[in-house]
Amino acid sequence: MQNAGRAEIERVDAASRRIAAVAADLAGLRARAGALAAQTDWQSSAAEAFRASVADWSTAIWLLDWPLERLQQGLRRTRAMLESLSPPSS
């Protein structure tokens, strides 16, 4: 049973790492898109539309931060519960 508990904890840890990687990738994309929009200094209607689209897209990604953090919190609670249910290793 101890190995089963350890396997579950490892799966939770793997899920947590994947979520952290997704969050980091999204933050990086948001930063790069913002930088590109900031460098777009042309004054055409297309440029304005591009900057507005980047702003909307960036906001949409930013709105994912909270749900991703909630998932991480849930995984931390699950891991703590699994650890408390697992017998101590010898």
Chart the SSEs and their pairings.
Layout lengths: L1 H38 L5 H18 L2 H21 L5
Helix pairs in contact: 1-2, 1-3
Count all strands and give the number: 0
| Helical coverage, percent range | over 70%
**What is the tally of helical segments?**
3
Proportion of beta-strand residues: under 5%
Biggest sheet character: none
**Based on helices, strands and strand pairing, what is the structural class?**
mainly alpha
**Low-pLDDT stretches:** none
Shape: rod-shaped
Terminal Cα separation, in Å?
Answer: 14 Å
Order of helix and strand elements from N to C terminus: HHH
Question: Could you report the average pLDDT, rounded to the nearest whole number?
Answer: 88
Over all CA atoms, what is the radius of gyration?
20 Å
Explain how this protein is built.
It is built from 3 helices and no strands. The protein is rod-shaped and about 65 Å long. The protein starts with a helix and ends in a 5-residue tail after the last helix. Helices cover 86% and strands 0% of the residues. It is mainly α and 90 residues long. The mean pLDDT is 88. Helix 1 runs antiparallel to helix 2 (45-62) and helix 1 (2-39) packs antiparallel against helix 3 (65-85).
